[in-house]
Amino acid sequence: MLKRNYLDYLINPLEILKTKRVLQVNPTIIPERKSAINGKIFLIEYSPVDFEFKSIEKIEDCYEHLHTKSISWINIDGINKTEVEKISAHFGIHQLILEDILSTNQRPKMDEINGILFCVLNMLYFNEKESTVETEQISIILGKEFIISIQDDADRDVFDAVREKIKLNTSKIRQSGADFLYYILIDSIVDHYFLVMEKLGEKIEQLEEDIAKGADNQTLVKINTIRKEMILLKRSIGPVRELIHGILRSENVLIEEKTEKYFKDVYDHIVQANDLAENYRDMLINLQDLYMSNVNLKQNEVMKWMAIVTCLLAPATVIGAIFGMNFEKIPMLHNKWGFFISVVIMVFTPIWMFFYFKRKKWF
User: Which of 8, 263, 308, 323 is in the most buried spot, having the most CB atoms within 10 Å?
Assistant: First the structure.
């Protein structure tokens, strides 16, 4: 699961010198993935008239249930390399697909190998406490009469709502094939993107109000924080459009013609999500410009008042400088009222200048 990694590089550029993984990535090397401690395996078999849900201890325990006329859905919460390798060998899943499942930080994509449709994409969560976007890599495999979904996180399961729908005899999932469940799983992930973007939208609106009221030194940090989250969001959402488009043009026999219209609906949703992400990106750029304008305006206001004060003190400075010159004969130098006259001039001249500037609307 990917959490806060990039903001440190935005705030402190020296941090980027401490790591090579940001700049040096070799996609041909499978990262060593640690097996989940609390991994869970669920098997769901369903047909228009039957439904069965089982919790599996070992992946081998589900093999005997896979040779029925029902649709089988194997869901693995928390990747265990051994279990994934076993199920891949049993279903004849290609080695390239296995590498993608076991790799981390995969770019969302789809593949069609040996008659099996595979896609990997990111589930997004919004961490309210940290105000950050977190990702979870999810792999979904569609085969003949079976679905295999593999999730990174053993503690969070995004498909609970789908399971509740399958339990209903009247649900469309029960009346359809495995390809419809494939659509439902992808659609659930895409729909969740909007929930995350809604949270980010609220943060952007709040930030806009804060800037309008008065920006402080932390405002730019907040803007960069949200921009970092938007980069992560765009990186996760953008490639999903290509993924759905790839499924639509694959013409795989596993996708029935009547199901294609549902994938077109998902395509429309992901296009909308991309447009919304672009709008948020533009809003952040505008907020940054607004922040800089406010800072410049505040600085100009300070400079204006400093110039006004300087102008108002100029007469007193000039008079004091004249009477402070080292000459023996200066008008009114030895006059007993000379000091008081000069003080009066020093006081009333700035006052007259102040009202004159006001009348001219110079401030």
Answer: 263
Q: What is the pLDDT of residue 35?
A: 60
Tally the domains of the chain.
2
Rounded Cα distance between 230 and 201, Å, is: 10
Domain with residue 347: its CATH number is: 1.20.58
Largest CA distance in the chain: 120
Instruction: Extract the residue ranges of the chain whose pLDDT is less than 50.
Output: 1-25
- Which domain range does residue 344 map to? 301-359
User: Rg (Cα) of the chain, in Å, rounded?
Assistant: 34
In a shared domain, residues 318 and 171? no
**Cα–Cα dist 161/206, whole Å:** 31
Q: How far apart are CA 71 and CA 178, in angstroms?
A: 6
Give pTM, 2 decimals.
Answer: 0.75
The closest alpha carbon to 96, from 113, 83, 81, belongs to: 113
- The count of residues in the chain is 363
Closest C-alpha to 123, from 78, 199, 189, 39: 189
**Which pair of tokens denotes residue 342?**
């000069």
